[in-house]
Each structure stands twice: as C-alpha cells, then as structure tokens.
Design brief:
Layout lengths: L1 H12 L6 H8 L5 H9 L4 H13 L6 E11 L9 E5 L4 E15 L4 E9 L4 H15 L27 H17 L7 E3 L7 H9 L3 E3 L9 E3 L13 E4 L10 E7 L2 E6 L13
Parallel strand pairs: 1-5, 5-6
Antiparallel strand pairs: 1-3, 2-3, 3-4, 7-8, 9-10
Length: 283
C-alpha cells in the first residue's frame, strides 16, 4: 500500500515520459529504483485489489450503485507494443492506431462518482478483425438495383428474436461482467449495467439478460419506437403488438415524470414502456 501510494503519486505529478527511472526520481524517500522495479515485476491480482480497496475505503451499504462499462483508446506510435491495433476514438472521430482498454466501474448514484473495478486490454482476435472489415466493406458497397420478387425468399425461415448471437466483443465483455459479479456477489447486488450508444441494440440486451442485468443504454436518434397496441384482439391470427409510432413532439402527459428549468432551457423527462421491432422485449 505504501509503495503503491508513492508510485501512483509520482506517476500523476511527473512530466515527460513515464519510465521506472523517472518514477524513482519523483517518488522521493521509499521509492528507489529497485523498489519500483520490484513493484512492477510483482504479479498483482488487480481485480481483487480494486474490490478490496472499494470494500474497505469507499463502500457504503445505504447507497445504490450501478455497473458502468466503457472503452478508452490511447494513441500509440510503436510497432511492437502488445495489442497495438486501429481502434475508433470518439475524440478524433475516426479509427486511430493505439491501445484500447475496457473498464467496468461501480457508479455511486448518490455521490455521482465512478470507481473502476476491472480493467482489461482489448486484443482483437482474427475473427473479430475479419468481421469488422466485412462490415466496413458492406457499408461502402453500392446498393443493388435488382428488384426482388415479392414475398418471402425461398428457404427463409422464422428466427426467434431471443436467439441473439454474441459477437467476440460482446463475449469478451460478458466474461468480464461475470467475473466481477462473482467477486462481489457476497457484498453487493447489482441490478443494472450502463453502456454507451454503441451497445444500444438487441445483441447487447441479450448480453445484459444473460448476466442477468438490466441494460441502460442509448438508442440511435432515428430508432423507430412504437406504443403497445391498446386495442382488443381481432379474433383471428396472432395478437397485434405494435400500435402507432412514437413521435417526440406528441408524448402523452401521463408519462411525464419530471420537468426542470435552467435559464431558458426546459427539460422534460418521460418514462414509458415502448416496443422496437428488432428487440424481443419492451423497453
């Protein structure tokens, strides 16, 4: 604990490149070059260490917590660094060469603070790279002008929406969430996982339900949502599920939960169960 405190403080305040020799010069008494070398040569179970720190110094039983996940990209110009690849960085708005790390954190709702619990480097497999290239090539491919015959194509069968195949990326995140939940199960019960707009789809929802957790994410701005059909059963065929389409400028007043005014901006918060045609359960 003492060594970790001095090395972490030196890493935060030092300028220039972060090296072991530089850390030893900034760490002061108790942070010699040999001490820094031994610290980084020691195999430390970081996932357990993060949880022990949180459990003894941060955790409050009266607070509600959410599980949050996000990916960060660090640009890197080397050629032999482990895991070096091209990842999409939101700050640049395009894929850049560098390293990517996915982090799971416990978010305190009352204190509005995030405490990292599990950090793993993203190393994409060959199958994941091939799937990414195929997806990018499909976007660039011009649409075909051949008109398809009406009706269902021959040989096409119904597919259950609940059978969502997890991509290698989602499988990696599922493994991280399961390991964290197994570690903290005796002390903390989580109900929801928060992910960004990249995971606002039915595949990520299947990931969350397998854990099992509720998914809090952001849908695309052009997502078509529908009200549940309020009418009676027609008497034949399957029951109708989808009603009229949801319009942002025509939301019923009974779903209004909160209204806040800051300056000249008024924000209205609505909450209602809605349906999406590609997602198998109500949102």
């Amino acid at each position: 604990m003492r060594q970790f405190t001095r090395i972490a403080l030196a890493m935060v305040v030092m300028t220039g490149r972060v090296t072991m020799l530089g850390l030893s010069r900034w760490a002061g008494p108790g942070g010699s070059y040999r001490t820094v070398q031994r610290f980084f040569a020691t195999v430390i179970p970081w996932a357990v260490l993060f949880w022990v720190f949180f459990r003894h110094h941060v955790y409050r039983s009266e607070e509600a917590s959410l599980l949050g996940g996000d990916e960060v990209v660090v640009t890197q110009a080397g050629k032999t660094t482990h895991g070096l690849d091209r990842f999409f960085a939101r700050l640049y708005g395009k894929p850049v060469p560098g390293l990517a790390f996915f982090t799971l954190s416990l978010v305190s709702i009352q204190r509005r603070r995030s405490f990292p619990m599990r950090v793993e480097q993203v190393v994409r497999s060959d199958a994941e790279k091939a799937a990414s290239k195929a997806k990018a090539a499909a976007k660039k491919r011009p649409p075909t002008s051949v008109k398809r015959c009406p009706g269902r194509p021959q040989g096409r069968k119904n597919k259950a929406k609940t059978e969502a195949m997890l991509s290698p990326e989602l499988g990696r995140i599922t493994h991280m969430i399961d390991a964290l939940l197994h570690l903290i199960a005796a002390s903390l019960a989580l109900t929801s996982v928060v992910l960004d707009g990249h995971f606002g789809n039915h595949h990520a929802l299947a990931l969350a339900r397998q854990c099992p957790l509720h998914l809090i994410a952001k849908l695309r701005a052009d997502s078509a949502l529908y009200w549940p059909y309020p009418g009676p059963y027609a008497g034949r065929g399957p029951r109708r599920q989808y009603g009229r389409k949801v319009h942002d400028d025509d939301l019923p007043v009974q779903y209004l939960q909160e209204t806040t005014v800051e300056g000249h901006i008024q924000t209205r918060l609505y909450q209602a169960p809605l349906l999406h045609r590609s997602i198998y359960r109500s949102l």
